[in-house]
Amino acid sequence: MELYERFRAGDIRALARAITLAESGHPLGQELLKRLRGHGQARVVGLTGSPGAGKSTLTDRLIEKARQRGERVAVLAVDPSSPFTGGAILGDRIRMMRHHQDPGVFIRSLASRGALGGLAGATVAALALLEAFGFERIFVETVGVGQSEVDIVRVADTTVLVLTPAAGDAVQAFKAGVMEIADVFVVNKFDLPGGERIVQELKTTLELAPARPGGWKPPVLTAVAPKAEGVDELFEAMDKHYRHILEQGLLNSQRLERARFEVESVIQEWGRRRTREGQGLIEQVAYGGLTPEEAAQQLLFSKG
């Protein structure tokens, strides 16, 4: 397979093509994934938070820090899907354009494609390809809406929740259940009014939270991304958490959970496709002819 050989030879265009094929579900992409999955090992860091929290600027600074350490870095920016085209918005890539000439950095936007949690199974497929290509650290920046914050923990080794002093930011985090899954908290834009207040709110809440696997205690950090303030501390906290999951033997279970998420995403996509094809059954549910369970069984288990 020519594309496979080019990929193994380090052709960045072959990597981009492979991700496109995998994202679209093309048979060639699936075959590449089977041959390449399991090659390489990267530290996968998920960054999530509300829109406007400064995730992209913070990611840009983390790229810079990783490159200073000689690491090859990739970024997957999971963007909202257009309901009409399914395409991704490229704003996150624009913010990181200063790295585009660095051969040690690869940045790619992926459409969430309406996945229930904002993350598509294609994200995990892209992670596998990036690992096989030799990237040592991969940042996954989520769309920051819906339940993507909850899904990211199933994909990343370390999950970073980015908050700001904006009124209501902490409250929304508490409501969404993110407090239970983030491994590192960072209050970005800490130079704005209310920074100390939200830090204290987070610390107080975390003191009452249940213990994490292996006894990990999530730190609450501060940052001002445009000035690179707090970036060194954030990077060290991410690495400390990664060392923790290695020492506690949690990495393998995390990788299994990532694969489970990918399989579930495929099943969800199959379900969406079948419901679009089964308009007659949907109408029967709407008018009381079938229960949702009966319609689902016919859609998922009928031949054709």
Automatic annotation (TrEMBL):
Signal peptide: none annotated. The keyword 4Fe-4S does not apply. PANTHER family: LAO_AO TRANSPORT SYSTEM ATPASE, LYSINE/ARGININE/ORNITHINE TRANSPORT SYSTEM KINASE. Keywords: Chaperone, GTP-binding, Hydrolase, Nucleotide-binding. The keyword Chaperone applies. This is LAO/AO transport system ATPase. One of its GO terms (molecular function) is GTP binding. Belongs to the SIMIBI class G3E GTPase family. ArgK/MeaB subfamily. InterPro entries: GTPase/Isobutyryl-CoA_mutase, GTPase_ArgK, P-loop_NTPase.
